[in-house]
Amino acid sequence: MHLIDFFIQKELKPGDSIPKEFELSAAMGVSRTVIRESLNRLKTMGLIESVKHKGTIIKSPDLSVILQKSMIPRILDEGTLKDVFEMRLVIEVGMADLVVNRATDADIDELASIVKNEIFPSENTLFDVDYEIKFHGKLYEITGNETLKGFQQMLFPVFNYVYTSGLINKTFDDKKYVSHTELVEVLRLRNADKFRTAMRKHLENHFKRVFLAD
Questions:
Q1: Using 50, 70 and 90 to split pLDDT, how confident is the model at 210?
Q2: CA-CA distances (angstroms) from residue 2 to 29, 36, 55, 80, 102?
Q3: 208 and 128 share a domain?
Q4: Which of 80-84, 111-115, 155-159, 170-174 has the lowest mean pLDDT?
Q5: Segment 133-155 mean pLDDT
Q6: pTM for the full model?
Q7: pLDDT at position 213, please?
Q8: Domain check: are 148 and 199 in the same one?
Q9: What is the pLDDT of residue 97?
């Protein structure tokens, strides 16, 4: 943390080279061994990186990569797993504007191709996880938001575990929800409000399962 504060005080930005080890050692009054160990930790955190012919530079951290290193489903408690799954639901409802505004006709056709063999399920059906990831992964890709796409990669292990572990394997009585096929047709309308509502209804069974698990 002292090193980070030092870099901030020096107004170093992503891409800027940091001082050499001996300079940092002198400036901070500690041994080069301590500096070296601290720099290694910062590299592990993704805050600095070594670049050929430039030395060690400040790096804009990839938040999803940092979190992904700790996102190991089998050592997360059930409450944390549920929290992460809820985050996924909220993100997918909230990214409607990005999807609608950035989807190309080719993107929509690809989504249609993914769902072309969809069998309309009952309210209690839990979709095949590979199928779910492929469809919803395409939606994240369409947003063009690299951080969002990174979060999706982070959520993959949790997404899969929550499905296969039975954590949300609950049944309930509910009205018919929006299928993947219907989502594609709503997306063709290019109306963010309608797509957001459709996505909320599409994910309704997941929301219900999460709440029933409380």
A1: low
A2: 11, 13, 20, 31, 42
A3: yes
A4: 170-174
A5: 88
A6: 0.69
A7: 52
A8: yes
A9: 96
DSSP for 163-190 reads HHTTTT-----------HHHHHHHHTTT
Residues 51 and 92 in one domain: no
CA distances from 7 to 28, 39, 141 (A): 12, 12, 34
Q: Cα–Cα distance between 152 and 64 in angstroms, integer?
A: 8
- Cα–Cα distance for residue pair 118/112, rounded to 1 Å: 10
Q: What does the pLDDT average to over 65-84?
A: 73
Tokens of 38: 């601290």
**Each residue of 21-38: pLDDT tens digit?**
999 999 999 999 999 999
Q: Do 50 and 140 lie in a common domain?
A: no
Tallying the residues shown for the chain, one arrives at: 214
Instruction: State which H helix or E strand residue 49 sits in.
Output: strand 48-51
| Same domain, residue pair 83 and 162 | yes
CB-based contact 48:5 (threshold 8 Å): no
Domain extent, residue 80, equals: 65-212
Q: Tokens 């009952």 label which residue?
A: 122
Of 61, 77, 99, the residue at which a domain comes to its end is 61
The count of C-alpha atoms lying within 13 angstroms of the C-alpha of 181, restricted to the half-sphere facing its C-beta, is 7
The answer to whether 160 touches 128, Cβ cutoff 8 Å, is no
- Residue 73 sits in the same domain as residue 42: no
Q: Which amino acid is at 212?
A: L
Please indicate, yes or no, whether residues 69 and 162 belong to a single structural domain of this protein: yes
CATH value at residue 25: 1.10.10.10
Q: By the 8 A CB rule, do 121 and 179 touch? A: yes
